Amino acid sequence: MPEVDFDAVFDALDLSRQGFLLPEQLQEFYLALYYEQVDIRHAQVAIAQICGPDAQGTCDKKHFLDVLTELDRRKCLEEKVYWDFQALDRDGSHRLHLNDALLLFRATHGENFSFQMWNKFVASRVDREDDVCFDEIKMWLCMLPEGDPCREEEVEKEEEELINKRAEMDWEEREELLKLQEDGHTLAAEARQQQQYQAEFKYHGRRKLNRWNKGGVEAVIFDDGTDWGEDVQQKAKNRVGVTELLAALDEKYHLLREKLLEEMAKIHIGEVNWLSLSESERQEQLLQVQLKADQLFQNRHFDQASSLPGGGQPCDQNLRALMGEIYDDQKQRDQDQTEQTNRLREEGRSEEEIYQIFENIYRDFIVGSTTTGDLLSDLQQRYEHEKETLLGKLQADGTSALGVSERILALVYLMRQHRCARDEGKFDSAVLATGIAERFQMYRAERFDSDRSRQEQLAAERLQQRRGRKPTQITEEDHIKSGRGLGAGNQRR
């Protein structure tokens, strides 16, 4: 250490003339002297070790130099031990297994290593078998060893026990991981079998219904197991049941949910890994995410959806901004907007001012970012809300009930939404197109139209997805059928 008048230094530090210094003052002095920060715990332990318990954590002038010497010894030893710790940290986790921590104790304390100090360190830990970080072990390594030095045989026995215990823990963790993976694969396989059974059951149900619609009772009684395709003339559909409407609603959200689950699975395993999977492996990944999502939603834990695999990906727009409200809610909003517009006109507001007012109101209504998991949660809650609204109209009496024509029209709209959800390549464009298809669109709205921005966004995303692709080749037959082929040209001439 440099030649310094430490009595004068002590007096300069002891500004209050109390005759002692605190650990914080020693820490500040060490930093000013060596331009290095020292852990406050080193100062506290050095004072306790040199000055004794009667000093009550303070350093007097008599022990000032000895405390600084001990503090400097600890700081130098900490720097050496740090690099030894890094050398033993093979996986870069900044933590050591307990057997490696024992090796570091032996290397630091040398011939004076004792089990008394080692056992104290182990007993001070919350989880004695957990890995050790540097901040936890450095104070013990800088202490002077206590107790009798141990024999080499004792050390080797302790190391062997620690290594065996670590091997057992690694094996147990591996078994638990394999069990979790097996459970995931088993659940996915069971869900796949259940889906196949449901698909087969629905197919035969649709087949029988198809025969009934196209051939009547006789076709059902004399069922030969074949399906009547589009070549068989169908009877005119004059009614739609509740089950058929609910099934169509389920199908709409199923199509949207599948697209979002696929994007979440891609995020979870990575785009490159996803492309390398076979179709069956992709379906298994989707099923695993879907099973976890179903379990959350059944328990009504909608707020935990971002913890799903691939559910933490940030998204700029929430579902309300992408898809809008369901038809009935939007209809009520339009009615309220019409009433407010009339009031604003009576107040003398211009059309431009009215438009800006409603635009700001709706922008505040849909503002907010989200995650892919929360999008899935919001989609589930929207489905439940729309289903409840539909059931309410189906079960209502009087003018609010859906008649025969309204049910047929509702089914037609749902079929159109199926087409929109199915044809779009990505989830964002699918929910945009489906949401727009839910509501009647005007060519040029006389007031603020919340779907206008969605139409523009959908057009931009479609152009982006089709950029760089070759235009679809149209056959001459389709060209003529569309009214732009040779036949149409001959008629114009």
How is this fold's topology laid out?
Blueprint: H1 6-13, E1 20-21, H2 23-34, H3 40-51, E2 59-60, H4 64-88, E3 95-96, H5 98-109, H6 115-123, E4 132-133, H7 134-141, H8 152-221, H9 242-269, H10 271-276, H11 279-298, E5 314-315, H12 319-323, H13 327-346, H14 351-366, E6 370-371, H15 372-395, H16 404-423, H17 427-438, H18 451-466, H19 476-481, H20 486-492
Antiparallel strand pairs: 1-2, 3-4, 5-6
Helix pairs in contact: 2-3, 3-4, 4-5, 4-7, 5-8, 8-11, 9-11, 9-15, 9-16, 16-17, 17-18
Computed Rg: 38 Å
Sheet with the most strands, sense and barrel status: 2 strands, antiparallel
Arithmetic mean pLDDT: 78
Low-confidence stretches: 474-493
Strand content: under 5%
Number of strands: 6
What does this structure look like?
- The protein is 68% helix and 2% strand.
- It is an all-alpha fold and 493 residues long.
- The termini are far apart.
- The chain is elongated and about 105 Å long.
- A two-stranded antiparallel ribbon has the order 1-2. A two-stranded antiparallel ribbon has the order 3-4. It has a two-stranded antiparallel ribbon with strand order 5-6.
- Helix 3 crosses helix 4 (64-88), helix 4 crosses helix 5 and helix 5 runs antiparallel to helix 8 (152-221).
- The model is unreliable at 474-493 (pLDDT under 50).
- The protein has 20 helices and six strands.
